[in-house]
Structure formats: C-alpha cells, structure tokens
Amino acid sequence: MLKPFVIPVIHHLDRETTLQQCQLSLASGADGVMLISHNGRDDELLNVAVEAQRANPVFPVGVNLLSMAPLDAAKSALQAKLSWLWSDNMGVSSRGLDETGTSLHNFALMHPEMTLFAGVASLESDPVAAARQARLAGFVPTTSGFATGQPPSLEKIAAMGEGGALAIASGMTPENIAEYAPHLSHVLVATGISRTEHHLDPARLESLIKIARRSVIA
User: Nearest CA to 165 among 118, 209, 211?
Assistant: First the structure.
C-alpha cells in the first residue's frame, strides 16, 4: 500500500503569506498544498496558486474555488496548469453521478494530468458506496467529520478506504494520524497542523508527516 500524501490546506490571507506557507510546506516534507479562500477571492487565489506552482513545478498545488461551480473551477484550474482541484459538490453520491458529476467525469477522462478531489459521504446513508462511485468516476473520494477539525469515525474511514483511494479533509492531527493513515491515500489537513488560521506550525506538520509514513506498512 502506498503511503498517504500529506497535503496542508492553506487558508489564503494575502499573496505573501500564502506563498510563505507553500514554501514552509515544501520545506517540511509535504507532498503538495491545497489553497482555499473563505472570502470569495478566487481570482486572486488562482494567481497566487499559479505563482506557487511555477516556483516549484514538481510540487503539486491545488485549489478549492468556493465561488465557482465545480466544472468552471476545474476548467480554471486546468487553464492555470494546477495539479489538483477539490470541491464538495462534484455531483457524485452513493446513487451515482448527476449531470454535474457526469460532466466532471468526462473532464477527468480528458485531463488525467489533473486530480479531482470530490467531497462525499457528509450526509450519506451509504458512505462506502459513495466512495466507490467517486473512484469509478475518476475522482479521489474526500470525506470529513461532522464539524471543522473533527475526525470521522475510524470505522467509517476503514470501510470507505477498503476499495482504493480515499482522502480525509477533517480532524487529522499528529496525535491521531497513526490510526487513520493505513486506510488513506491522501490527508488534507489544516487545523491539526496550524498555529493560526493562516499560518502552519512546521513542527506539527513535520510530526504528522513522519508518523503517517511510518504507520503504513508497505
């Protein structure tokens, strides 16, 4: 089994701070970064993401563009030559794909160089089926806990991750990652490795990475 990718989620404040946090993530051994703006400044965020990606071409940079429809966000990320896109509304559930999901599935087929992280299972009665449908569509199923910074149950993650790729986007810390890491392909993490909303704690990030990687038996 591959070791999980550890991806700090950087909450955009301004160009200088976000670029600093990207460099800190790279220096700490992270596998890439995901950028998000909670203030609707997605055009600015894209410009910063492009700058970060150009500065380190082999260090993946992704975005969650909250103000855009998912397909528009995917097209914008593609045009910006970014590595990853994350959205909670990619049109996939345990029942399969809706119109949005089908469009994004076709996008994923046409652009395999970009990885799409699709939020699933937040309100699902069958989270395992939702994860399976996301993988079939070419997405990385991405799940979270019941609130910001809260982890989902270990039993849920173990079941959802049994069929392949699975990302977690809530509640991971250096203190609990050892239990979860064997069931995950990607760890999207912010609160558990941060000292403020916009600033990571390099010591906690490095600790989480180290523990996650030694917790997975190859």
Answer: 118
